[in-house]
Design brief:
about 425 residues; eight-stranded antiparallel β-sheet; two-stranded antiparallel ribbon
Length: about 425
């Protein structure tokens, strides 16, 4: 989610730019893999969940032990086919239960698995190798059931709870946010070591990959409460570090550090557009707040991959003045819009409860070699990846940089073969 300027390398100079050097250096090749340990050092395997020792903990609704959905929840039932519509929806007020509902279905646990003595969790948001480097922080005003004052919270997915990191003065929140529609913030960070333990130097790639998954998961889950979501591009990574407290050295003694990723605004109405002066005043109030808690250590032993630190610094984002209310990535050319609408005309799942379906997400483990899918359902699936003024793409502003190569085997009505799906018209010539 971060960006840096990369200069084209020349044969005489080699790959001098750190971004290109990382890109080239972490590719797999026909005769060798990218640098990693080459084996899994189980003794140093990171703990799958970060916690903050000494922080007050507030359990969230719904109880993760129950599978109840729909009318049992404090917000309205949503059918799955509504998730990808552009709205508008009736928004929930900012309550502890509504925040919990979004977090449960965006970043919470979907299942526990066990094989002999080993037990591990699966989460709603996908992750490379199920390693989950992404951490989430919530910033909100006074919310009944959470706190009487504005606060910064860390989301503990294993307990479906919020750990209070900081309480700050009410005037700062009011001046920054309360002249707008009800709003709360989700800030995302990455722990590089969680991925580097398994993937070595390629870990930075996977952390960015998983950050994108988390953004989409938050946007999709927000529909359950009728909220809109937009990334706030003008927040720099250093400002995000101050907002979440991940720049507080005293709270990370012997603990793995976190790389700031992005800030998402979750709102029921118009999405906020923050000025630099407002951000500075707001962050100063957060820094003056009462901080509590110490980050847990995930592993006692570590391997340092200096190339990851180098590319992280080279891609550090200083923020950019783009209004989240007018995303750039959502304007199609007529031809592209026509094709995207053709895809979305296909039928969606009929009246499936969105919450129940979200909690059933799994990785594919086995295929029977016989089952097929019809063309209309196949194109309905593909429609979800096409950008437009609908979930989850309305949370972003940039044009697509990733396009699909599809290996099609058993789709009724479509000849088997390799297909390319450009997600942006200008990409076709390059592909």
């Amino acid at each position: 989610m971060t960006g840096g300027k990369a200069e084209k390398a020349t044969p005489e100079s080699g790959v001098a730019d750190p971004v290109l050097r990382y890109h080239d250096g972490t590719k797999h090749h026909f005769h060798r893999f990218a640098q990693s340990m080459g084996y899994l050092d189980w003794a140093s395997q990171p703990h799958p969940f970060r916690s903050f020792i000494g922080s007050p903990v507030v359990s969230l609704h719904p109880d993760p032990a129950t599978r109840e959905v729909g009318s049992a929840l404090p917000v309205a039932r949503v059918d799955y086919d509504q998730l990808y519509q552009s709205g508008p929806f009736d928004s929930s007020s900012v309550t502890a239960a509504a925040i919990g509902d979004v977090l449960r279905h965006a970043l919470g646990l979907s299942a526990w698995k066990q094989f002999r003595a080993s037990r591990w969790a699966l989460r709603v948001n996908p992750s490379s190798g199920n390693l989950h480097p992404t951490e989430a922080y919530i910033v909100a005003g006074a919310v009944e059931g959470l706190s009487d004052a504005p606060a910064v919270w860390h989301y503990a997915a294993d307990r479906h709870a919020l750990e209070q990191r900081c309480v700050f003065e009410s005037d700062a929140w009011r001046q920054a946010w309360e002249d707008r529609s009800p709003v709360w913030l989700v800030a995302l960070t990455s722990i590089h070591w969680r991925e580097a333990w398994k993937y070595g130097e390629r870990a930075f790639r996977y952390c960015q990959h998983d950050l994108g998954h988390a953004i989409a998961a938050v946007r999709i889950a927000a529909v359950l409460a009728g909220w809109r979501v937009a990334m706030l591009p003008d927040w720099s990574q250093r400002e995000i570090a101050s907002l979440t407290g991940v720049d507080r050295d005293q709270d990370y003694v012997e603990a793995e550090r976190e790389e700031p990723g992005c800030v998402l605004a979750v709102a029921g109405g118009a999405l906020p557009d923050t000025s630099r002066e407002m951000r500075i005043a707001f962050l100063e109030a957060v820094q003056r707040g009462r901080w509590v808690g110490r980050a847990s250590q995930l592993s006692e032993d570590h391997v340092d991959w200096s190339l990851i630190d180098e590319v992280a610094r080279a891609t550090e984002d200083s923020g950019r003045p783009i209004s989240p209310a007018v995303p750039v990535a959502q304007d199609f050319s007529p031809a592209h819009k026509s094709r995207s609408e053709d895809l979305r005309d296909d039928p969606a799942p009929a009246h499936a409860d969105a919450r129940a379906l979200i909690l059933q997400r799994r990785s594919a483990l086995a295929f029977d070699g016989r089952t097929s899918i019809d063309l209309s359902r196949f194109t309905a699936m593909l429609s979800r990846v096409m950008p437009g003024r609908h979930t989850p793409w309305d949370a972003l502003w940039w044009t697509p940089r990733i396009h699909l190569a599809l290996f099609v085997h058993r789709v009724d009505g479509l000849e088997p073969g390799v297909y390319v799906l450009p997600r942006e018209p200008a990409a076709l010539a390059c592909l």
